Automatic annotation (TrEMBL):
GO terms for cellular component: mitochondrial matrix; mitochondrial outer membrane. The keyword Metal-binding does not apply. Belongs to the zinc-containing alcohol dehydrogenase family. Quinone oxidoreductase subfamily. Gene3D superfamilies: Medium-chain alcohol dehydrogenases, catalytic domain, NAD(P)-binding Rossmann-like Domain. This is NAD(P)H oxidoreductase RTN4IP1, mitochondrial. Keywords: Membrane, Mitochondrion, Mitochondrion outer membrane, NADP, Neurogenesis, Nucleotide-binding, Oxidoreductase, Transit peptide, Ubiquinone biosynthesis. It comes from Triplophysa tibetana. GO terms for molecular function: nucleotide binding; oxidoreductase activity. It catalyses: a 3-demethylubiquinone + NADPH + 2 H(+) = a 3-demethylubiquinol + NADP(+); 3-demethylubiquinone-10 + NADPH + 2 H(+) = 3-demethylubiquinol-10 + NADP(+); 3-demethylubiquinone-10 + NADH + 2 H(+) = 3-demethylubiquinol-10 + NAD(+); a 3-demethylubiquinone + NADH + 2 H(+) = a 3-demethylubiquinol + NAD(+). Residues 42-383 form the Enoyl reductase (ER) domain. Pfam families: ADH_N (PF08240), ADH_zinc_N_2 (PF13602).
Length: 391
């Protein structure tokens, strides 16, 4: 709540100081921009570089246009390139179903952005042109592998001063995903996490490496599963106990440890068959998985039947485990400028650092996608945009 009040206070002070902003539209600005797009779903060959992508415009008074300095890739970008979630995304873009199938093309991928505010809608008071910002872009919107992107102001936050744009672009999507799962769904926060026991299944990827640092900064005891060659990384980030999943059945080793207050599952598959037995029963403990069948169901069955199937599935699992005294939950990405405000403070305080694995130029986007497809990432894959386009 304090962050919302702070945003309101800044907005009020700016308005009283005569800094009311309308649309900062330049008549000399082009109507096209450079971007990487896809014109159909498929593998890497569908990626196309163009200098004629439509330039985004402010359509609503709460929107801002951001000049992209850097972007980063997530596994979701690989999945979306292949059409994952297309039915649900189409509904979000066109709830009245007025457009023809395929109207999302040319589609720009990329869920992370760090850049500079260029234009603001009439109702935007918390930001001004020139502000350095970062954001996680909802998957139904055009992405950040382009010169410019348009976002709602409540999805945007001021970038940490201590990070470069390349470093900052590696954080927002995994941060908002971890925040949504751990805080909104899991119920932990900076005030109640001290001495709580947290298990992160799959801790060396983007969400895992961020989650380790966040809950550790809040005073939790953190146990992580990963491969042996990632142990040093997760320990450097704050993991207290590390279990190597390549050295035999991981559940056997975890069963020898104390029970947990929260489990964050980045792996899915068979893990939920045994993971919930590791929770403290009848103590409010929660298992939150980020691997859900929701989008697969809607892609396969259509929106209505897919949502019905999803509801039945999650309800059955919730009731099944509630009888054992533990809580089963699904976690989802949720864009939030307010969460990023808090995270920005933690970054500048030295409590969270970005974990980058490799940085590519804008000309190397296909190579960046290929690297992502190989899996077993030890941090984020970043693409620099603005500086490369100047060259």
């Amino acid at each position: 709540m304090h962050l919302m009040c702070r945003r309101w206070l800044v907005s009020t002070l700016r308005a009283r100081g005569g800094h009311f902003r309308g649309f900062n539209v330049s008549s000399s600005r082009n109507t096209v921009m450079t971007a990487w797009v896809i014109d159909k779903y498929g593998k890497n060959e569908v990626l196309r570089f163009t200098k004629n992508a439509p330039l985004p415009i402010v359509n609503y008074p709460n929107e801002v246009i951001v000049k992209v300095h850097a972007a980063s890739l997530n596994p979701l970008d690989i999945s979306m390139r292949g059409g994952y979630g297309a039915a649900t995304m189409a509904m979000k873009r066109d709830p009245l179903n007025m457009n023809q199938s395929g109207s999302e093309f040319p589609l720009i991928l990329g869920r992370d952005v760090s850049g500079e505010i260029m234009e603001c809608g009439l109702d935007v008071k918390y930001f001004k042109p020139g502000d350095q910002v970062w954001a996680a872009i909802p998957p139904w919107k055009q992405g950040s592998l382009a010169e410019f992107v348009v976002l709602s102001a409540n999805e945007v936050s001021h970038k940490p001063n201590s990070l470069s744009h390349a470093e900052a672009s590696s954080v927002p999507y995994v941060a908002c995903t971890a925040w949504s799962a751990i805080v909104n769904t899991g119920g932990l926060n900076k005030d109640n996490s001290a001495k709580k026991r947290v298990l992160i299944l799959g801790g060396s990827g983007g969400v895992g490496t961020f989650a380790i640092q966040m809950v550790k900064a809040w005073g939790a005891h953190v146990t992580v599963t990963c491969s042996q060659n990632a142990e040093r990384l997760v320990r450097d980030l704050g993991a207290d106990d590390v279990v190597d999943y390549t050295a035999g059945p991981v559940e056997k080793k975890l069963q020898t440890l104390q029970e947990f207050d929260l489990i964050l599952d980045n792996i899915g598959g068979d893990t939920e068959k045994w993971a919930l037995d590791l929770l403290k029963p009848w103590n409010g403990a929660k298992y939150v998985t980020l691997v859900t069948p929701f989008l697969q169901n809607t892609d396969r069955l259509g929106l209505a039947d897919g949502m019905m199937q999803t509801g039945v599935t999650v309800a059955c699992k919730v009731l099944k485990h509630l009888r054992k005294g533990v809580h089963y939950r699904w976690g989802f990405f949720a864009p939030s400028g307010l969460a990023l405000d808090d995270i920005s403070e933690m970054v500048d305080a030295g409590k969270i650092r970005p974990v980058l694995e490799e940085v590519f130029s804008v000309a190397q986007v296909p190579e960046a996608f290929q690297k992502m497809e190989h899996g077993h990432a030890r941090g984020k894959t970043v693409v620099t945009i603005t500086e490369d386009l100047k060259e």
